[in-house]
Write a structure and sequence with these properties.
The protein is of the alpha/beta class. It is built from 8 helices and 18 strands. Helices cover 28% and strands 29% of the residues.
């Protein structure tokens, strides 16, 4: 069984920031990620333009490449592994990694989020072929879609819609309410895009598979309709993966890193329980790493 001072689970912006800060403070952590790569959901982002150190707006993919280089500059790499369960072991923490186990003095959970279920029944066969919750897997499975429905109206939904429109895809934006939840320039750009058609006040009631996916809709007046698309991209919200590991009784989304138990820190989107901002995730990672190293020094 491996013994480590600090283990970081998740190699998105929060996990990378935490890992680098640990090295800067004299501790080399073990950095794990279920995908075995840097970036997390950032790889799906069309444009990031609110980081002060960027000389210009960048795509999520470009920022992922920068994060990977940054990690390598500090002699760090990502080990592909999934944290299945954890439990306290005296003052330390026991980690069940499936085929292996580990013990660590401090644990930083940068595990991100998973998509919320869409709220309507459909065949599991459609997942990964015509129904998706992230943009990149959709474009891998369907490299040249012509028409896609995006379910949701938050920042992720609008960003996905614009990414698809950039590739010449006609997008139907399915909005349950009377207006989109996204605000400011992103919402305005999405609603003003000629390739994005918003449908307001509609609820998805079911899917019919075929060469084209038939998405059944019901509007506020009780009228039924369908849209025919190559794929449905569901972006209606996400929930914390860390919450599943920690169980009930933990209050999430507080300001700054969450420490539900001594030596355990929850950061970034895992703390927020939703898609957050890269800058917030980075700040969480820096603060958690500093606290974790401080904990080791106090032992």
């Amino acid at each position: 069984m491996q013994q480590h001072e600090i283990v970081i689970v998740g190699a998105g912006p929060a996990g990378v920031a935490a890992a680098v800060q640990c090295v800067r403070l004299g501790v080399k952590p073990l950095l794990l990620d279920s995908e075995g790569r840097v970036g997390g959901l950032l790889i799906n982002a069309r444009r990031v333009d609110n980081l002060p150190f960027l000389e210009r707006p960048c795509s999520g993919l470009e920022l992922v490449q920068r994060l990977s280089l940054h990690l390598g500059n500090f002699g760090l790499s990502v080990q592909r592994n999934t944290l299945r369960a954890l439990r306290p072991l005296g003052e330390d923490h026991f980690l069940d990694l499936g085929e292996s186990q580990a013990i660590c003095n401090a644990l930083i959970l940068a595990t991100g989020t998973r998509p919320k279920p869409p709220g309507f029944a459909f065949s599991a066969r459609l997942l990964g072929s015509q129904v998706f919750s992230e943009l990149r897997p959709l474009l891998v499975a369907l490299p040249a879609p012509r028409r896609v429905a995006v379910l949701g109206s938050g920042e992720a939904a609008c960003d996905y819609a614009l990414s698809l429109a950039d590739a010449g895809v006609k997008v139907t934006l399915l909005v349950r309410g009377k207006q989109v939840k996204a605000r400011g320039a992103l919402a305005a750009e999405a609603l003003g895009c000629s390739l994005v058609t918003p449908l307001f006040g509609v609820e998805v009631t079911g899917l019919t598979e075929g060469a084209q996916l038939a998405v059944s809709l019901l509007n506020a007046a009780g009228e039924a309709s369908q849209v025919q698309v190559d794929a449905l991209l569901v972006a209606i919200g996400r929930s914390s993966r860390a919450q599943e590991l920690l169980g009930g009784g933990v209050s999430f989304a507080q300001d700054g890193p969450l420490s539900p138990a001594p030596g355990v820190f929850v950061v970034g989107d895992a703390r927020l329980g939703a898609l957050g901002q890269v800058g917030i995730a980075i700040g969480d990672g820096l603060a958690a790493a500093s606290a974790a190293v401080g904990l080791l020094e106090g032992k």
